[in-house]
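Case study.
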Amino acid sequence: MLPTIAREGDVVVMIDQRKLPAQEVYVRCKTAAEVARAIKTMVIRGAPAIGVAAAMGIALGMRRSTATGTQKFAAEFHKACEVMAATRPTAVNLFWAIERMRRSFSAAAQAGESVDQIKDRLEREAQAIHDEDVESCRALGAFGAEVVPADARILTHCNAGALATAGYGTALGVIRGAVEKGKRVAVFADETRPFLQGARLTAWELVRDGIPTTVITDNMTAALMRQVPIDLVIVGADRIAANGDTANKIGTYGVAVLAREHNVPFYVAAPLSTIDLNTPDGAHIPIEERNAREVTHVGSAQLTPEGAAIWNPAFDVTPHRYIAGIITDRGIFRPPYIESLKRAFEVVTLG
Ligand code: MRU
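After joint prediction, the assembly is written out as follows.
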């Protein structure tokens, strides 16, 4: 499986997603601040992967702490959590993972653990977040495979693959799950301007897996849907609000509207850690705006004239009415989401 992120001794190693597919190079982070920077600068990206990286970064930072007293150690821990929380605002998995680390820390403090014991506990929690993410992806992949026809043409947007998670992927997890069940799948990958996650990362993953893949530029989706019978669209998510409104990579909303026009079912695949019942609807999801340079340049080549204003929102929100189902590690949830998503969490609490 793809090595998205791993702990190796006293560094956190991640494949540099900015350089793929041309180069497979790894970034070795020695401090929590370096991990935070890697998240901010998109060395690692994708909602679940960001959460995993933050947890592993916090555990790494605390392992390297020289504090001997619990008070100083606690202050450093809370600082590390704040630094991680300030990296990217939209993917709720980031805040979910930080909250898990905070709860782990509180439990250790309440139990009167020593600094060394707390360090061990934080490491275990971060690794658990990593390992559970792979399990969640595999589970949702198996559930999602059920909605994939035996011979399917699937469109996806951005990269919701192994690279965007601790492994296996969400939207690509469903595709992998379908292939593992013996279904024949052909994938159309939107290139996903401006960061090109579809062209660079999704295509790279799928080609490695031997899954037939066609890359299209974002403005070709409408023509594709008119000319080629697409069976379904599957995308990932950065945050799913309580009513099912879903923030995902910029361009997703347009794909959903086109899917409706062409009677193509539009599915979202995400682990429960992406569902945020505290956010009532899409209007309350903070949307990250990124650097203009991502739009004005490709590599060192300038595309736009000096003086042109640039707007670069990293995500958009797809209203829940366009979504046929939300494929999670607890099953597939259907409208009305305001009820079904709440039930998903009740199952977890009771289970
Ligand atoms: O800006 P990115 O590359 O972090 O955005 C990623 C996406 O929008 C993904 O589709 C989403 O995080 C789901 S990843 C399983």
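Observations recorded in class. The pocket of MRU is lined by residues 45-48, 91, 158, 160, 164-165, 170, 197, 236-238, 248-249, 314 (CB under 6 Å). Residues 9 and 148 are 41 Å apart (CA to CA). We will return to this complex in the next lecture.
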